[in-house]
Amino acid sequence: MFAMPVLLVLIVTGMQRDTFDLANKNKLPLLLCNKDTGAASLQFIRAVDTMGLFEVRQIPGTQNEGMIRERLYRKEAFVAVVLPADFSAQVAARTKSLAGKALKSFGLGDSLSGPGVSVSGNPLILYYHPVLQESFRRSAEGTLYSALQLVESRQLLKTLYFSINEKELPDTLENELLSNHERISEIPVSRNDSRKTPSVSQHNVPAWTIFAMFFVVVSLGSGIVREKRSGSFIRLKTMPTSYVVAILSKQVTYLGVTMIQTVLIFAIGVWVFPLVGLPRLDLPDDWSALILVSLLCGWCAVSYAICVGVYSETEEQANGFGVISIVILAAIGGLMIPDFILTEPFRTATKFSPLHWCLDAYYRLFLEGGKLKDVWSNVLSLVLIIAGLQGIALWGLKRKNLI
């Protein structure tokens, strides 16, 4: 309940940080086989290298498809690009065709788009290892398309300029035309007008803290089953008190455990993360809201564990159902996959996961900079969920004649 959540937060946060920093530090290896000898291929290689996503590793142009496939199978890289021998010719043909159409629309003739100009064929070939996920593959394709477009735009500018002015395009003017673009100002929307960009720690630490809380089902759920099977329930019924008192005492104890988990994981995010190269966890300014939300999330986890323990017949059943159900609820609750990218049926299903409401409350505090007044809807939802779980547990105890 303590060591495993700590390892989980450290490992997942570290891995996601490396994923988010892929374009800046950990570049994706790219094998590039250039069979072309023209200027366009050299411009393309420089453009790909400038994009920053790939670590370009050039391989001899004499290598065939089988050799390239073998190198990908050995995982020297996950992406390979082959520039065919007529790469520069194809770029020149395509840009001449476009320039001819442009000049014709300007009323300056269409001498460049004669019948001898051909734009057929593939300007480049992309190979990728099947283990490469679709998101990375699409990023790779987008980067290569951007580099190819840059090369063709450069060639098109030169062709148009020469056709109109009958002289070469100056390098300074070429660079000015191609690099003339507006910068994008990124501003995160927050409730306290803070413009600080949330780090990967702000996303991961609250999420996996909730995951750790709900895993008390392994200990608490199986403990209740053990008491039922050992006859402890019957002995407790002979005492001059209600078993509800025993259930409440268990909840208070395990609620304390979840609070220790929360304090431990948050403390690691604040003090240990910077020591291992991870972004520091910035705690919300409203401590009262943070404490209230943490208590409700912990109580919700304990209530769920009580329900699993009451309705399970064996410890194996409690552990198996408890663990698998938590993983499923975490998946549909947004802990593993953000709910905004889900389809409508799955987005509706997230509302039935207690972990979703816990995560939404934490995100309003950690990511949006919210205060107590901003999480009242989440607080009310968690109170209703807790009341429902407690009612289901009590109904189960009465149905089994345990209280």
Walkthrough of the structure:
This protein has a four-stranded mixed β-sheet with strand order 2-1-3-4, with helices on both faces. It has 403 residues and is mainly alpha-helical. The chain is built from 15 helices and four strands. It has two domains: 156 residues, abc type-2 transporter like fold (3-Layer(aba) Sandwich), CATH 3.40.1710; 200 residues, no CATH class. It starts with a helix and ends with a helix. 62% of the residues lie in helices and 5% in strands. About 1% of the residues have low confidence.
Structural class: mainly alpha
Considering DSSP H and I runs of 4 or more, what fraction of the residues is helical?
Answer: 55-70%
Distance between the termini: 29 Å
Determine Rg (CA atoms, Å).
30 Å
Segments where pLDDT lies below 50 for 5+ residues?
113-117
What is the molecular shape? elongated
Largest sheet: spatial strand order = 2-1-3-4
Number of helices: 15
Mean pLDDT: 82
The helix-strand sequence is HEHEHEHEHHHHHHHHHHH
How many strands? 4
Number of domains: 2
The largest sheet, given as strand count, sense and whether it forms a barrel, is: 4 strands, mixed
Strand fraction band?
5-15%
Task: Describe the structure concisely for a colleague.
The protein has 403 residues and is mainly alpha-helical. The chain has helices at 3-20, 39-51, 65-73, 87-106, 134-165, 171-178, 200-214, 217-230, 232-237, 243-272, 287-311, 315-332, 344-349, 354-366, 376-399, and strands at residues 28-34, 54-59, 79-83, 125-128. The model is unreliable at 113-117 (pLDDT under 50).
